[in-house]
Amino acid sequence: MVNDTKQRPLIIAEISGNHNGSLERALEIVRAAAKAGAHAIKIQTYTADTITLDVDTPAFRVSDDHSLWGARTLHSLYEEAHTPWEWHAPIFALAQELGMLAFSTPFDETAVEFLESLDVPMYKIASLEIVDLPLIEQVASTGKPVILSVGTASIAEVAQAVEAARRGGCADLTLLACTSSYPAEPDDANLRRIPVMKEMFGVDVGLSDHTMGVGVSIAAVALGATVIEKHVTLRRADGGVDSAFSLEPEELRLLVEGCDAAVRALGSADVWATGAESESLRLRPSLYVAADVKAGDAVTTHNVRSVRPAGGLPPSDLPRVLERTFVRPAAKGTPVSWDLLR
Length: 342
Description:
Layout: E1 10-14, H1 23-36, E2 40-45, H2 48-51, H3 74-81, H4 85-97, E3 101-106, H5 109-117, E4 123-125, H6 133-140, E5 146-149, H7 155-167, E6 173-178, H8 193-201, E7 204-209, H9 215-222, E8 227-231, H10 249-266, H11 278-282, E9 286-289, E10 304-307, H12 318-321
Helix pairs in contact: 1-4, 1-10, 6-7, 9-10
GO molecular function: transferase activity
Enzyme class: transferase
Pfam family, one: NeuB
C-alpha cells in the first residue's frame, strides 16, 4: 500500500457525493481533510449512465423504506451523487499539492481507462462491485495497489475477488471490512473478522466505516486495521446524499488523532514496566521509620510503616522487620534497611 504514515493506518477521506454539485465545495473538502490530517482523498468515477440504466421500475429504485434514499431511482441518485470527470484533475492536483494521496473508485472499464490517463497511484473497488470480477481483473492489471471493500460479500465471494485480483497481477491488495448500509450500526460492524480476514487471505485488512462517529474506526485499528476509510463533508447540516453518515472536519481530526493513539498504544506484549513510569516507580511504597527511634528500640507498627515513596525495604518484609531492634538512632523519614536492624 502506498503509505508514508509508517505504522499508522492510512486515513482516507471519501468525498463521494458530498460536493453537492459544486467543484469549489469539493476542493474545500480537500483542504479541510488535509488540515485535519487525513492521508488520502478518494472520489468515485462513474456517471449515472455508466453505473445504471435510466429506468423507473421497482428493480431500478431504492427500497421505499431506505432511511436516506427511499424510493429514488438509481439513475437520479447517481446523477446527483456523481463527480463530473472534468473535476477529477483539479481535485487530484490540490490533494497532491497538500501532501495527500489522491485516487478513485472506478465502476466500469471506461472509468479505469480515464483514471489511468490521470496516473492515479492506486484504486479502490466498491463493496457492490466485488462480484464484478472482470472489473477487478482490469484494475489489478494496472499493477497498482488495490483496496477492495467486502461489504455484502460472502467468504466465497471474497475469495473469488481476491483470486481475480491476483489473476490480474495485483501484488499489493488490501481488503476492507465493511457494512454496506447507510448509516451503519456499530452492532453490525463485526470487527473481529479483521484479524481473521488477514490470516485467511494473507493480506492487510482495513475498515470502510459507515457508522456515525469515530469509535468503531479506532476500535478497528486496535484489531490491526491498516486502512480507515470515512466519508467526509464540510457540515452535515448542508445536506446531500451522503451527509448523514459523514464526518465533519473536526471529527476527522479526532479520527486521525485517535487512530494514531490506538496504534501507539498497542506497543509490545513483551514490555511491562516502562521508562515512562520512572517517577511512579520512585513513588511506590516501602518501609520507612515513622517516628524517631534510639538504638535498642524494638521495631513496632508505630515506628515503622509502609509508606510512599520507594527507597526502603519492600512492604512484604514488614513481618521479618517487626522481629528486630534498631542498632542506631534513626529519624522519622529514614528508609529502613537491614543494616539499621539487629
